[in-house]
Design goal:
Layout lengths: L2 E7 L3 H14 L5 E7 L6 H8 L4 E4 L5 H11 L5 E5 L3 E2 L4 H6 L2 H4 L4 E9 L16 H8 L2 H4 L20 E3 L6 E5 H6 L12 H11 L3 E12 L9 H18 L4 H21 L9 E5 L12 E4 L13 E6 L5 H11 L4 E7 L4 E4 L8 E4 L5
Parallel strand pairs: 1-2, 1-4, 2-3, 6-9, 10-11, 10-12, 12-13
Antiparallel strand pairs: 4-8, 5-9, 7-9, 13-14, 14-15
Helix pairs in contact: 1-2, 10-11
Length: 381
């Protein structure tokens, strides 16, 4: 078998359904499998998986064993030569895996480590954590205090987000994000998989770093784009920052010398970071002047009173004086078409949702700090 796609879920039932649907389309031409592992969710994720996807390999944990252990359990059950670690709050394009597995990175690179790809948020904006550098104390300092934004072209300040590479350039990077990681299963096992002593947040940094220590080269692959509804599995609040700080301390204790000065700097930086993120976060439905539904069947549904419906993307002419909510019917358009359109037309006056006709709900996220919006249309009168 060529590929095993591993999806670890915890209480994101609606995003999980959308993710699995996109992966099913993306592996149609591959000898591949999907493995969903649930970390004891309290929502109806497990019921949904059994009803909607009875033929997919599904593992139910009886406890929330954390991101590293959950993925390690799933990889142990995998059969693919390659594995993809994939967040449940992601949407892949139909050609994502084929592009990566057929690329020269895979076919000609004997020292290949981990491959990541271009990630965008629910508003179509590029997520800079798609490619990162090793967060040494200095690099982490430039991140926490925003110095990388002030000096984006300086190699002294721009290493956290690997700004030596543009978002449209494929090339070597040190660290990749755990939302999307492709690698040989043999490599994953060789370097010991995710470190189960780290509950979450530093696990992808640690795995990427151990691949480098093993003599491999990690790559950012810019030729395919994946939506990551960043923030759906984790709220960006003070508790998050506490876990983040603990994770960074774990990484430094494991790979670098412990520094009292750095601990002090992390505490100050984490406090500032958590305040900024808390102010940025919101969770609301976007009320627009015009809701535009893209559907080849010209569907209507009780979402808002006045809607515009189009069967082709190019038919819509955006008026910058209006706010738009663009709703994509996933049965009418491919995920590739939807992702490409989001990349092309993203603007401050536009938000996006996806419509899943079989389950009758809308889903989306308005920015990287938004926990997302789920609208169950069957409950709207």
């Amino acid at each position: 078998m060529q590929l095993s796609v591993i999806i670890l879920n915890y209480n994101v039932r609606y995003f999980l359904e959308l993710c699995v649907l996109s992966v099913q389309k993306a592996i149609q031409n591959l000898d591949a499998e999907i493995i969903v592992i649930d970390n004891n969710s309290s929502d109806d994720s497990c019921t949904m998986m059994k009803q909607r996807f009875p033929n997919i390999k599904f593992i139910q944990n009886k406890e929330n064993s954390g991101f590293p252990k959950g993925n390690n359990i799933a990889v142990a059950a995998a059969k693919g030569e390659y594995i993809c670690i994939l967040n449940p709050d992601t949407v892949v394009a139909e050609d994502t895996f084929e592009k990566i597995l057929n690329s020269q990175l895979v076919t000609l690179n004997s020292q290949l480590g981990i491959i990541g790809c271009r990630l965008i948020d629910g508003a179509g904006n590029f997520l800079p954590e798609s490619k990162r550098g090793i967060p040494t104390p200095w690099v982490a300092f430039t991140k926490i205090f925003g110095l990388y934004k002030l000096f984006p072209k300086s190699s002294f300040f721009n290493k956290y987000y690997a700004q030596h590479l543009g978002k449209n350039q494929t090339g070597k990077v040190d660290i990749l994000v755990g939302a999307f990681m492709v690698m040989k299963r043999e490599l994953y096992n060789e370097i010991g998989g995710f470190d189960e002593n780290c509950f979450m947040y530093a696990d992808d940094i640690d795995l990427s770093y151990r691949a480098l220590q093993n003599g491999k080269s990690n790559y950012y692959f810019a030729e395919t784009t994946v939506i990551h509804y960043k923030g759906e599995s984790t709220t960006r609040d003070q508790k998050y920052m506490m876990h983040f700080q603990e994770a960074m301390q774990f990484f430094y204790k494991k790979h670098f010398r412990k520094s009292i000065m750095f601990d002090w700097m992390m505490q100050i930086g984490s406090f500032i970071f958590s305040k900024v993120k808390k102010n940025q976060q919101y969770n609301r439905v976007f009320y627009s002047d015009q809701t535009v539904i893209f559907s080849k069947e010209l569907l209507t549904f009780p979402y808002v009173a006045d809607t515009l419906t189009y069967s082709k993307f190019e038919d819509l002419k955006i008026n910058p004086s209006f706010k738009y909510e663009l709703v994509f019917d996933i049965q009418s358009f491919s995920f590739y078409e939807i992702i490409n359109y989001m990349n092309t037309v993203r603007a401050i006056n536009i938000t996006f949702k996806m419509f899943l006709p079989e389950s009758n709900f809308l889903i989306g996220s308005n920015n990287a700090n938004d926990r997302g919006v789920i609208i169950n249309l069957s409950k709207i009168e």
